[in-house]
Design brief:
By secondary structure, the protein is mainly alpha-helical. About 70% of the residues lie in helices and about 0% in strands. The model has no long low-confidence stretch (mean pLDDT about 85). The two termini are about 35 Å apart.
Length: about 150
C-alpha cells in the first residue's frame, strides 16, 4: 500500500506570495523602515546625550531615549512584514503613519528648524498611507475586504 500526499489547498496567504512583490509594497516597506530607523537613531541620540551630557533632567532624557527606541520597533516590524508579504503588517504600518501626522503638524507649528522636518515627515506619512491602501498592495498582502471572504 502506498501513501500519497495530497497538496495543501491554496490559501490566501500562499496565493498572495505568488509572483514578484509589487513595487508599491516595497516602497511602503522602505518608508516604514526609514521612519523606524529615524526613531531609533533619535532615541539613541537622546539616550547618549542624556547619559553623557548635562541634560536638565537625566532621568527624563534616558526615559525619552528608551521610549523612542521601543517605539521604533513598530514601524521596523511592520516594514519587515510588508517585505515578507504578511497581511498583519499593514495595520501597524498604517497606525505608524497616522501617528506621524500629528507629530508633523506640531513640527510645522514651530518657528524653528523643525519646519522642514515637519514637511518631510508629513510627505512621507501621506505617501506611505497612499501606498498602503492601494489596491495592488492590498491584493499582494492577501487582504480581503468586507464581504469578499472566499
Amino acid at each position: 500500500m502506498s501513501s500519497q500526499q495530497n497538496p495543501a489547498p491554496e490559501t490566501a496567504e500562499t496565493a498572495a506570495t505568488d509572483g514578484p512583490r509589487p513595487r508599491r509594497l516595497t516602497y511602503a516597506a522602505v518608508l516604514a523602515a526609514l521612519e523606524g530607523a529615524a526613531l531609533a537613531a533619535g532615541g539613541l541620540w537622546v539616550l547618549v546625550r542624556g547619559v553623557t551630557g548635562e541634560p536638565d533632567d537625566r532621568q527624563q532624557a534616558v526615559t525619552l531615549g528608551i521610549t523612542l527606541i521601543v517605539l521604533a520597533l513598530l514601524p521596523l516590524l511592520a516594514a519587515r512584514g510588508l517585505l515578507l508579504r504578511r497581511g498583519w503588517s499593514r495595520g501597524p504600518a498604517v497606525i505608524t503613519q497616522l501617528m506621524a501626522l500629528p507629530v508633523a503638524y506640531s513640527l510645522l507649528q514651530a518657528d524653528s528648524m523643525a519646519v522642514p522636518a515637519g514637511i518631510a515627515l508629513a510627505a512621507i506619512a501621506i505617501a506611505a498611507l497612499v501606498l498602503l491602501v492601494n489596491g495592488e498592495t492590498t491584493r499582494a498582502l492577501g487582504i480581503k475586504g468586507p464581504g469578499r471572504a472566499e
